[in-house]
Amino acid sequence: MLDISEAALAHARKRLGQNAKRVKWITADVTTWAPEITVDFWHDRAVLHFLTARADQEAYFRTLKNTLRPGGWAMIAGFAPGGPTECSGLPIVQHDADSLQNLLGDDFTLIEQRDETHRTPSGAKQAFRYHLFRHTAQTQ
Ligand SMILES: C[S@@+](CC[C@H](N)C(=O)[O-])C[C@H]1O[C@@H](n2cnc3c(N)ncnc32)[C@H](O)[C@@H]1O
Fold this sequence. Notes:
Blueprint: E1 2-3, H1 6-16, E2 26-27, E3 39-45, H2 54-67, E4 68-79, E5 86-87, E6 90-91, H3 97-104, E7 108-119, E8 125-135
Parallel strand pairs: 1-2, 3-4
Antiparallel strand pairs: 4-8, 5-6, 7-8
The chain binds S-adenosylmethionine.
């Protein structure tokens, strides 16, 4: 699990209890991290949407492509169009299948997308959208 915040990772580690030992914990900025591992599944809920600059979005997808093995899956979720425009007081970018496809390029195919209404601890409703892409480029 990767996060720029050590505190966020500590919170997740605590919630996982004994299972935390099975996770590789990485404190890093996803836009500058040089992957030392590869994975079959990339899961992002509400991280990409904080990257408002195009250069940071492109850097995020460079990391994703350097980390994901050919044939792997990428699940990317964030606030949906029509949903909140800020998260924790910070501006966010609402992505959809087209904007993600544009950043991922032709080597990735959208498999499925689903909307979810997320309830915050205070009871507010937030429109989320999950996108599942597959790396479908031919391997050599
Ligand atoms: C709204 S929280 C979502 C946390 C978790 N993914 C979840 O679904 O509960 C956003 C997280 O993105 C992390 N984050 C923001 N910018 C980041 C970056 N450039 N690199 C890595 N993590 C980042 C924050 O530290 C925070 O933990």
